[in-house]
Amino acid sequence: MSTQRIDPLVQVETTCRALLNELQIIWEEVGETDADRDEMLLELERECVEVYRRKVDQANHSKAHIRQTIADSEAELAAICSAMGERPVHIRQSDQNIGSLKEELRKMLSQVEEMKKRKEERRNHFIDVLDQIEMIINEINGSTESVSSETVVDETDLSLMRLEELHRQLHELLKEKSNRLKQVQDHLNTLNSLCSVMGMDFKLTATEVHPSLGDSEGSRSISNNTLEQLGTEINKLREVKIQRMERLQDLATTMLELWNLMDTPIEEQQKFQNVTCNVAASEHEITEPNTLSDDFINYVEEEVSRLEDLKSSKMKEIILKKRAELKEISTKTHLIPDTQLEDAIEAIDSGVIDAATILEQIELQIAKVKEEAFSRKEILEKVEKWLAACEEESWLEEYNRDENRYNAGRGTHLTLKRAEKARSLVNKLPGRVEALTSKIMAWEEERGTEFLYDGTPVLSMLEDYANLREEKEQERRRLRDQKRLQGQLIAEQEVLYGAKQSPPKPQSAKKGSKQCTGVPSTKKVALGGPMLQAHKLDSVNSPRISQTRSNKKTEFMLQNDAIPASPAFKRGQDIADAPFRKHPSNGINTNEIESPLKTIPTNDPSNNTMTPLKTISSVDEENRKPKAMHSTASVQMQTDITPPPTLQTSLVEETHEEMEQSFEEKRLALMHSDKQIPSMIQV
Amino acid sequence: MTSAQPPAPGRELSNPPTDGISNLRFSNHSDHLLVSSWDKTVRLYDASADSLRGEFMHGGPVLDCCFHDDSSGFSASADNTVRRIVFSHGKEDILGRHDAPVRCIEYSYAAGQVITGSWDKTLKCWDPRGASGQERTLVGTYPQPERVYSLSLVGNRLVVATAGRQVNVYDLRNMSQPEQRRESSLKYQTRCVRCYPNGTGYALSSVEGRVAMEFFDLSEASQAKKYAFKCHRKSEAGRDIVYPVNAIAFHPVYGTFATGGCDGFVNVWDGNNKKRLYQYSKYPTSIAALSFSRDGRLLAVASSYTFEEGEKP
Lengths: 683, 313
Description:
Distance between the termini of chain B: 21 Å
CATH superfamily of the largest domain in chain B: YVTN repeat-like/Quinoprotein amine dehydrogenase
Largest sheet of chain B: 4 strands, antiparallel
Structural class of chain A: mainly alpha
GO biological process, one term (chain B): cell division
Region (Disordered) (chain B): 1-20
Shape of chain B: globular
Organism (chain B): Gossypium raimondii (Peruvian cotton)
Order of helices and strands of chain A: HHHHHHHHHHHHHEEHHHHEHHHHHHH
Family (chain B): Belongs to the WD repeat BUB3 family.
Oligomer: heterodimer
Radius of gyration of chain B: 18 Å
Number of helices of chain B: 2
Strand content of chain A: under 5%
Keywords (chain B): Cell cycle, Cell division, Centromere, Chromosome, Chromosome partition, Kinetochore, Meiosis, Mitosis, Nucleus, Repeat, WD repeat
Structural class of chain B: mainly beta
Number of strands of chain A: 3
């Protein structure tokens, strides 16, 4: 160094010297005084000293400055270090300071620079963290302000500890953020499922809550507000879901009921399987998309209302059917149907009255009518029979007035048969009427109401009929009495004047028909017993039974289609072998015989009992042309006193064609004939 | 013979007669059954126990029998005799005679008399309390229009059905003449007559598969109730084969009645409702007689050929 210094210095010195020399020269030239020279040299010296002094001051200053700077730097360093929480790396090593100040300064500066850099770094870190923290906090708070560009950092504390702290904070915040994000995601998922179940637009709903939520990609708001809103939205939607679910379930149950009621086919039911399977589900079990959408629910509702319409129309059908049934039953039993119910049925369409109640009413009515019909059945049958009999009666009267009724022609035998039946019916009528009357009265008493037949009380009908009959009876009696008197007159005349022809009988057109019997009361006298019974048994009247004697020889006539099983029938009848279809000729025969019997009033006991002998005689007189068998019949008529022939004779007569025998008699006879004669005597 | 409780099948009694059965009767006091037969015996059975308690020989086929009480009974025989049989002693004595086979016999509790009908065309009443011998026992003889075929008693009424389809109704208290003289409503020979237990009328059956239900009361109202119905017939090729209805028996309690015919069937009828209640399964041959026990629990059915078709092997 010094060498180096020397050089310039030497140079300068030389220069100075040169200058001085020069100066001297000059002076010399100039001739300056030595005083002046000295002065000038002094000045020069003084100026030089000044300059030197200045320079030295400067140098001192700079040295002080440097020292100051060093100190400053130190201080700065210390500050930085303390701010950063580190011990200063470089403590002042004044003792080790061999080097010059400038060196020191340099070092110091570099250290300071370093520290500054580090501080800056640290500070950046802090800023970073703080920024992040702030961001997150902002997110959480939901504030939309962006992170301030100037984050305030606490310069005083840039220590690592604090940084750690801040990092921790950040970490937690990050956690919180992630939690919230998860929450949001969960909520969104729930929302999504709810929306899908209910057919709502998820994106729309989500963005309604917060615009960022609709975006599946971008960051989502995690603010408290958002979360809250999400929560409420979810709850709201859930409630809506529950509501809809309940509605749907109601509809489903209704549908099930209606299906049950109307026996809907399986195919139809399958369409709504997804609805009915959820009928008892709870809220969280319903997760299929669109199962609770408005459209779907409406669809189901429509179906339900369609089914209900179907049900009501079916009910109407049923009601109409029942009404028809009711009418039928009513008309069958000749009851007048209830008009009140009819009106009610008409009112169904107007909707005033409920179909179900009407159905109930109809059912009740039907049951009532059925019960009534049942109780009326028996009587009704009798009434109908009676009505039929009345018709037959009037037909018969017509028929009797018909002059040509015995003309042989097509179907005559049928009308004759009908007349037969009609007569027997007519004879049974009074008894029937009485029985019917008593039955009806009993019924009316029991039920407390009149017995109506198509609206008219039957009892009055019967009464009218009875009165009519009574009148007719009286008419007939009158006529009969008249005839009797006439007959008596004639008889008396005959006694006086001899036999006369039988007086014309106004009622019987054919004389021939009177051949066999003629007279009302003792018809049986002339005829063989069974001949009288040619008609059906049922019409037998008491007066005829009261006095009859049949003869021994009885004639059996096949009046019906029966074929006898035993040979007993073969005896004693001429017509036995005739095939039954020969009926008509026989029938006509018998009916011919019969008609006078019947047409002449049979209900006249007085005639029979009072004057039996007289009538017998008139029979004989009237019946001028009896058939052969009947003449024997009249001979055989018995009285009470004649002793009967012995059994012996009857046994002997067994071969007689007309002998009636019971099976026991026949058997005994056989036994005895087997045993030969002694057994007969034995008796 | 079988006793029947519907619908259970009947029980055949052992030791039946060796020839056809003419009639059988239940006692009014017990389940003893008296059976008269063409093998000339009258047998006494205990129906419930199915045991033969007595057998009484007669001089000829026995045509009818009846109980007096549980210790004695009466029989009507084809040898013209009317006998009294004392079961306990196994003895029988002749109460009286007719001039021809005695066809029917009844005992009237009301009158205390035995009533017999015979083919000698008479009805005779006997007093069994007297000593035997016709002079003491015969109460009266009442001529009939024809041979007596069937008899039935109820209370004080007696119904006599004879040949020629005549029917006489007597009041036992005045036998001098019939209360009513009627003719059978049926056209064919009368086979059997039975009075209703309630005494209002009688049922009459004929050989032509028909039964007539008649009433004693001659008023119009009562006579309107009478009717006849066909029964014991078989339908074949459009025609009916008719069988004689040999027996009628009335149930003492219900008033329903059973009829037995030569077709081998027993039908039970409800006369008021005019319906057949049931028909028992076919018997091997004709039904000869029917009888209900006194409580109506048992029905005795006699099935034997009744000679409706003459001689048969």
